Amino acid sequence: MTPKITVIGTGYLGATHAAAMAELGFEVLGLDVLPEKIERLSQGHSPMYEPGLDDLLQRHVAGLPGSSGRLSFTTSYADAAAFGDVHFICVNTPQRPGEYACDMSYVDAAVDSLAPHLTRPALVVGKSTVPVGSAARLAARLAELAPAGEDAELAWNPEFLREGFAVQDTLHPDRIVVGVTSEGAETLLRELYATPIAEGSPFLTTDMPTAELVKTAANAFLSTKISFINAMAEVCEAAGGDVVRLAEALGHDERIGRKYLRPGIGFGGGCLPKDIRAFMARAGELGAAEALSFLREIDAINMRRRVLMVELTRETVGGSLLGKRVAVLGAAFKPDSDDVRDSPALNIAGQLHLQGAEVTVYDPKAMRNAQAVFPTLRYAATALDAAQGAHAVLHLTEWREFRDLDPAALGDAVTTRHILDGRNTLDPAVWRKADWTYRALGRPTA
Ligand code: UDX
Question: Confidence class of residue 241 from pLDDT cuts 50, 70 and 90?
C-alpha cells in the first residue's frame, strides 16, 4: 500500500515539502501549531512568498475546485499520527537569543507531541537543520515515548532547498541524503523519492551523524565561498582592483567555479548565518572547536560588509549621514523572497537610519515583513517614490526590476545622482552614461 505522509511544521521547508509530496502522488497531511497558517494553507495560499508554491497548493489542497485533493492540513497531532506512515519534521531551529547555539525546542516539541500518539509502526524523518547528535538523541526519545516502541523509527533526511527556488529544489533535488539505521527505513525512503531518483537525483545513504553533518557542512562551505570573495573585495578596495572581474576570472577555473562567488554585501537569511554559528557551538561542545574556528572569521568578514556599505554611503554623501536622504532598493535577504530574517539590506537601512539618515525603503515583496521588523524606517510604494529627493540610492537586493530601472527617470527624482550597488548586478556603464556616480565595494570608482 502506498505510504501516507505527514509534514510537521509548515514554514518555507514544510509547506513546500508537503505540496511537493502531493505533487509526487502521495496523500499528505500538513500540521502546524498556528491555526492562522493552517487556515491560509487550507485555502491554497502559502504563508510566505515563494514562486510557484501557490500554484502547487491550488493543484492539490483538498476542497479547492479542480484539485487532486491529496493535500490537507490540521493542527492535531492525534490526527497526524492516525493518518501517517511517514512523518517529516520540518520545524525551524532558530538561533538562541544571545547565543551561537540553535534552539531545538520546536524539534523537541514536535517529537514529544507526536510520539505518544504513535500506536503502530511509523517512520519519523527529520528534515530540520540540527546540531549533529540530535538524531541519535531524538531516536531514543521516540522509542521511549511511542506506544509502538522500537517500531517508531527515526531517520534523518536533510533538506537543501534555496528560498526562491524551493519548489524546483524540492521536486528535483541535486541529491537526496538519508541517515538511516535500518534497511526498512531506506527502502521506504527510496519509495517516497522514486520519481526524483528515476530522474537521476543521486540517493546517498549514510549514518545519522553524517546525514546531519552534510547539511551544516554544505552551508559552512557556501558561506566560506561568499566570504572568500568578499575578503578579496576588501583587498581589491585597498589595491585598486576590481573584484567583479576577479570573481569572473576565478570562476572560469572549473575547480573553483563561479557559483557563490558573487561579491557584495554578503549573506543573510534564516539559514547560512545561524547555521554556521550553531555549527561552531556544536563543534565546541564536541571538543572540536578549533576545527571550525575559521568560521568565526567567515562570519566576521560577512558582518563587516554591512558596516563597509554604511561607510561607503557616508563617504558618498559628503562625510556625514545626518539629515541625508537615502533610498534603499531591496529589503529581502535575496530576490524572489519576502524573507527579511537577518537581511543585509534591511540591516544596512537600519544602521543608516540610526546614524541620522532619512531612509526610504522599497522592496517588491518584502514590505510588510520589513515594516514589522523596522517600523521606524520610511517605506515607498515604488523604487521611483523611494528615490524622491535622495542624496544616494542604494541597491541592496538584486531584484530583476531594479536591473530594469531607467537611470534617466530615476535621475530626475533624486537630489544627487549617486548609485551604490551592494549586489554588483547593475551595469556601471549604463548608470555612468546617465551622469550617475556608480560606486561598489571593491571596485574602481570610474
Ligand atoms: C541556503 C542554502 O543555499 C540552501 O542550500 C540551504 O538549504 C538553506 O540556506 P537560502 O538561505 O535560501 O539557502 O539562500 P542562498 O540562495 O544560499 O543565499 C544566501 C545568502 O547569500 C543571500 O543573502 C545571498 O544574497 C547571499 N549570496 C549568495 C551572496 O552574497 N553571494 C553569492 O555568491 C551567493
Answer: very high
CA of 269 to the centre of ligand 1 (A): 7
Q: Which residue is it, cell 487532486?
A: 68
Other C-beta atoms within 10 Å of 148: how many? 18
| CA 209 to the chain's CA centroid | 23
> pLDDT tens across 117-174, in order?
999 999 999 999 999 999 999 999 999 999 999 999 999 999 999 999 999 999 999 9
CATH assignment at residue 133: 3.40.50.720
Q: So what's the pLDDT on residue 446?
A: 73
271 given a catalytic annotation: yes
- Residue at 199 is within a domain: yes
Query: Which residue has a Cα nearest atom 18 of ligand 1?
Result: 267
- In sequence order, the β-bridge partners of residue 328 are 361, 394
pLDDT at 249 over 80: yes
Count each helix (H run) and each strand (E run) in the chain, helices first: 19, 14
Domain hosting residue 263, numbered range: 223-439
Residue 218 is assigned to a structural domain of this protein:
no
d(CA 8, CA 110): 7
